[in-house]
Design goal:
With 301 residues, this protein is of the alpha/beta class. The protein has a single domain, classed as 3-Layer(aba) Sandwich (Aminopeptidase). The strands form two sheets. It has a six-stranded mixed sheet with strand order 3-5-4-6-8-7, with helices on both faces. Strands 1-2 form a two-stranded antiparallel ribbon. Helix 7 links the parallel strand 4 and strand 5.
């Protein structure tokens, strides 16, 4: 059995409960696996090709040569959810940066967000960096294949995180704010989706100081976190979009005080290298201002 098949049969797929405590049991024993199988690599290359514009493909396809997997990180249809990790060489130094988790393609019809996230992962190979990064470029591979915002079960993953108000508010908010728009479907219960639980597994495993979540198409940068002076970036303005029941920003910042930067690209890629540098520096300061976390924060997710 390939790793992709094994992951689809993992404990994640068997753990779906009615409360926000459900996903915790599913990720207690998360561990990292190296060396995806040949079948997994074929899936990875196909996903990168679907995510990338033709002119970027040659540069980005080497992502799969270094891709890693967490146990349980597969989509509803069994496609592996790949990541790479770049640990800063001086990660134990008092001058070290922070731990930055970057997610792309939470919505399957936003491939440009996945391409930029892949570009950041590849760029980290060749530049010095104070912070340690874990990069998950294609969190919703089934949505990518289907060209839908939602996953294969028709759920908006960015309304499915187990926020403290999910049970009371998520369905009501969906009904009142979008008139039950299928594209905003929060799911049947908090963290009901395996892809959501994969994202939580990465948070528990990597223990980020800050999370960057890449999207399209609103052409702004949003921030859920402490009060900050925002650095100017010529291609995208900073705008507060708010957070919602089941959203990543509400789950990690409002509920758990881990800041979240949401990059909303437009329909063309900006200067992604400058953006990565800007957000890398911003992330260090934002994480400092967010304050000290509870020692057991990530164990309690």
């Amino acid at each position: 059995m390939s790793l992709a098949s094994a992951l689809s049969l993992s404990a994640y797929a068997e753990t779906t409960g009615p409360t926000s405590s459900a996903p915790a049991a599913a990720v207690e024993s998360v561990r990292t696996l190296d060396g995806p199988t040949a079948a997994d690599m074929e899936i990875c290359r196909d996903l990168v090709e679907r995510t990338s514009r033709p002119e970027a493909l040659e540069r980005l396809k080497t992502f799969c040569d270094r891709a890693r997997l967490l146990v349980g990180c597969a989509s509803h249809e069994g496609r592996p959810i790949f990541h790479v990790e770049h640990i800063a060489p001086d990660s134990n130094s008092p001058l070290r940066g922070k731990r930055i988790l970057t997610l792309g393609l939470i919505h399957g019809d936003e491939p440009l967000s996945g391409e930029m996230t892949l570009s950041w992962a590849e760029r980290l190979r060749g530049i010095p960096h104070r912070s340690s990064w874990r990069v998950v470029p294609m969190l919703n591979p089934d949505g990518l294949i289907r060209k839908t915002r939602m996953n294969a079960r028709g759920v908006d993953l960015n309304r499915n995180f187990p926020t403290r108000d999910w049970n009371d508010q998520a369905i009501k908010y969906w009904e009142t704010s979008s008139k039950r728009d299928p594209r905003r479907n929060p799911g049947e219960s908090p963290a009901s989706e395996v892809e959501t639980r994969c994202a939580i597994a990465h948070i528990k495993s990597f223990k980020p100081d800050i999370i960057i979540s890449n999207h399209t198409p609103y052409a702004v940068i949003d921030f859920d976190g402490p009060k900050m002076n925002f650095p100017r970036y010529r291609d995208l303005p900073w705008r507060a979009l708010g957070n919602f029941p089941g959203s990543l920003g509400r789950y990690m910042w409002k509920d758990h005080q881990v800041p979240v930067v949401t990059v909303e690209l437009g329909h063309v890629l900006p200067d992604t290298e400058a953006l990565q540098d800007l957000l890398g520096t911003f992330s260090i300061e934002a994480a400092k201002r967010a304050g000290t976390k509870q020692p057991d924060l990530f164990d309690l997710l």
